[in-house]
Amino acid sequence: MSTKKIAIVSGHILEEEATLTLAELCWRCQTPAETIIKLINHGVITPQEGTSSHQWRFHRSTLIRADKALRLKRDLGVNYAGAALALELLDELEDLRTQLKRFMDV
Amino acid sequence: MEYKDYYDILGLKKDASQDEIKRAYRKLARKYHPDVSKESDAEQRFKEVGEAYEVLKDPEKREAYDQLGSQWKAGQSGFKPPPDWEQNFDFGGGGYTQGNAHDFSSFFEDLFGGGKASGGGTHYYHSTGTSGGGFRSKGENVRARVMIDLEDSLNGATRSFTLQMPEVNEQGQVVNKQRTLKVKIPKGIKEGQTIRLGKQGNPGMGGGERGDLLLEVGFNPHRLYTVEGKDLYLNVPVAPWEATLGATLQVPTPDGKKVGMKVPPDSQQGRKLRLKGKGLPGKNAGDFYVVLQIVLPPSSDPKVKALNEKMRDEIDFNPRSYLF
User: Fold this and answer.
1) Of B35, B180, B198, which has the smallest distance from its Cβ to A71's Cβ?
2) Using CA atoms, how far apart are residues A45 and A84, in angstroms rounded to an integer?
3) What is the pLDDT of residue B214?
4) What domains, with CATH codes, occur in chain B?
5) Tens digits of per-residue pLDDT, B197-227?
6) In this complex, do A75 and B29 lie within 8 Å of one another by their Cβ atoms?
7) By the 8 A CB rule, do B97 and B78 touch?
8) Count of A-B CB contacts under 8 Å
9) Residue, of A13 and B312, whose pLDDT is higher
10) Domains by residue range for chain A, with CATH
11) B227 vs chain A: nearest CA distance in angstroms?
């Protein structure tokens, strides 16, 4: 195993970067548009603006959520609805954990 | 090589039925899936479970594995398959499985071959990577979770992270390389947000662009403050008379200063006092909340006891009147 040193790199906060079009989102997730549309129809991800697929703009963080849903689908054999449910429950769990942490500190 | 007890990994007995194997695998895969589990070794466990299932779900591979297992005794550390063990089975050339083979152990690889040729397979820490044909393709995005301190977000900072990143070498093999990166932490980043480092992911094929490196940020627990989104909370203990009569408290703010904070009279337990804009910095800066915690002096002190008895006898106060 070798170690490579690299100069300081700076990035951006993904969630606050400019928005993505449907084509860009497909490219970044390396998945066909049909899959993205299925994720939208199941409420896993939502376009931030735009009414038709040509005008859709997605938040950058959509990328992470779409990836997560597709991994759950592939690895656990759940369908789109199952992945959507799992992600919603995981969000809720995360919120509750944060709140709990605050109360445990007392 | 290290012998792997696939039955043990799935929590099964040797005579488990194919249905039992499937059930055990599905259950453990859900439990240890890295997107679901909070355990630190989840990814490792998830791979082990996948490897065990890959062998045991296939009756032919399972039979071959069972033959080997009969020659291995618990506690034995080194393990060598007998030289001619695979003559009855045809696993030699690899190409036996639907991918992820380069995530499997050397034990698996030695028995069932493969893995080496599948440079294009998918690895968990990448975004799923089956791009359509063509010789140029963008490299895979690599994801990793990193922990920072609250101060790093408050003040901005440069932090070093060492990441295990799979890379494809000249022979087309996938090898894990350790890479140390010095990363500038954007000021005001919130827990759960992601730092995107453009073109720091896996190399593309045929001169294609490198993928991105996505660092999901978590916060180490802080001695004083808890974080919710962009807001910070600090529990501050107060004496019962301070809560009743009001007081001015010295409070440490996240920017390292001290402020005098006015507690209004009749403040109940848990009352939140807000300092606007003193949370995580940014365009819409977060707020800083002081949460009052009423702490009682001990009744072992005779003076405390006497004064409380006096209050009980002289003050007309029933906090439970609403119950009846």
Assistant:
1) B35
2) 9
3) 87
4) 6-112 (1.10.287.110), 142-219 (2.60.260.20), 231-314 (2.60.260.20)
5) 888 887 777 777 888 888 989 899 899 999 9
6) yes
7) no
8) 119
9) B312
10) 17-104 (1.10.1660.10)
11) 8
Question: Which B residues, 175 through 214, put their C-beta within 8 Å of a C-beta on chain A?
Answer: 176-184, 186, 189, 192-198, 200, 213-214
Q: What is the pLDDT of residues A27-74, one digit of tens each?
A: 888 889 999 999 999 999 999 888 888 889 998 888 889 989 999 999
- The residue of A5, A13, A26 whose CB has the most chain B CBs within 10 angstroms, and thus the best one to mutate to test that interface, is A13
Q: Does A104 touch chain B (CB under 8 A)?
A: no
Residue B2, pLDDT score: 73
- DSSP assignment of B159-224 equals EEEEEEEEEE-TTS-EEEEEEEEEEEEPTTPPTT-EEEETT-SPPPBTTPPP--EEEEEEEPPPSS
Contact B94, B104 (CB under 8 A): no
C-alpha distances in Å from residue B197, one per residue of A71, B142, B166, B194: 22, 10, 17, 9
Question: What pLDDT score does B131 carry?
Answer: 36
Contact A9 B129 (CB under 8 A): no
The residue in chain B having the minimum alpha-carbon distance to the alpha carbon of residue A95 is B228
Return the residue of B nearest to A71 by Cα.
B128
Question: What global pTM score does this model have?
Answer: 0.61
Distance from CA of A60 to the nearest CA of B (A): 10
Whole-number CA gyration radius for chain A: 17
Residue B323, pLDDT > 70, answer yes
Task: Please give the ipTM for the structure prediction.
Answer: 0.73
